[in-house]
Amino acid sequence: MKARSAFSIQRDVIFAIFIREMNSRFSSYTLGNIWILLEPMVMMIVFVVIFGIRGRGEFGYVEPPVFILAGFLPFRMLWQATMRLNMGALGGVKGLLGFRQVRLFDVFMARSLVEAGIFLVAGTILVVGMLWLGFDAVPHDPLKLLYFALILWLFAASFGILACIISDFAREVQKIISIINMPIMFLSAVFYPMTIIPSAYHSMFALNPLVHANELIREAWLPLYESPVADAGYLYAWTLVTMALAVASYRLRWQRMVAR
Q: Do residues 93 and 1 lie in contact, with contact meaning Cβ atoms separated by under 8 Å?
């Protein structure tokens, strides 16, 4: 019998953890499988109530539901969910790490892939649903959208891994990040475009890499929107540095973390 390669073993391990995470995600609650659609729908309804159903030029010349879908869905699923799941990965899979083939990195990968898959499925369903309702929700440049969504996903996964490792020294890190998640949402141009922010404050908002991610995704989704601050290079730099720190800290600490 031919011996299996290390890559094939790791691939199967990640797939098995992926299936486990999916079952855990959607079997815990009766409405767990539709809440991923209800949450962005509720945010769109609130946005419509506040701003009205009519499109506004400062919101990218699109209907408010399309605008909020383009901002909230990537941020909520690719950033918040991916980062949070990786940050708490160690606490939820202690039993799995007792198996010789399973590594903590496999858990990080599986959890990140779960959120990426949910984003694609939920996004497709919501876009089709909005088309049925009469809204033009199809992304203007789907490939560009997926590209910047991938960058945001890598940034979130790396940040979550780094936060998980740092929290091994200080558990308070996870609580602090959870507390500031909501303020970060409002400071990251999720519910508003940077075009309505006075130009004097652009440089201050532009320090936040999530602003660039949201604005770049919005440019790819909305045909007439042009961001005054979006800088792909700045987002790349943050992503690469975060990935490097996450990989380096993981290599140094993962065995001690698992042994505890």
A: no
Residue 61: per-residue pLDDT: 66
C-alpha triplet 57, 232, 83: angle, nearest 5°: 95
Distance CA 220, CA 222 (A): 6
Given this model, what pLDDT does residue 244 score? 94
DSSP sequence for the chain: -PPPPHHHHHHHHHHHHHHHHHHHHHHSSTTHHHHHHHHHHHHHHHHHHHH-SS-BGGGTSB-HHHHHHHHHHIIIIIIIIHHHHHHTHHHH-TTGGGSTT--HHHHHHHHHHHHHHHHHHHHHHHHHHHHHTT---S-SSHHHHHHHHHHHHHHHHHHHHHHHHHTTT-THHHHHHHHHHHHHHHHTTSSS-GGGS-GGGHHHHTTSHHHHHHHHHHHHHSTT---SS--HHHHHHHHHHHHHHHHHHHHHHHHHHHH-
Distance CA 66, CA 47 (A): 10
Which pLDDT does position 21 carry in this prediction? 73
pLDDT tens digits, one per residue of 207-256: 999 999 999 999 999 888 888 888 999 999 999 999 999 989 888 776 66
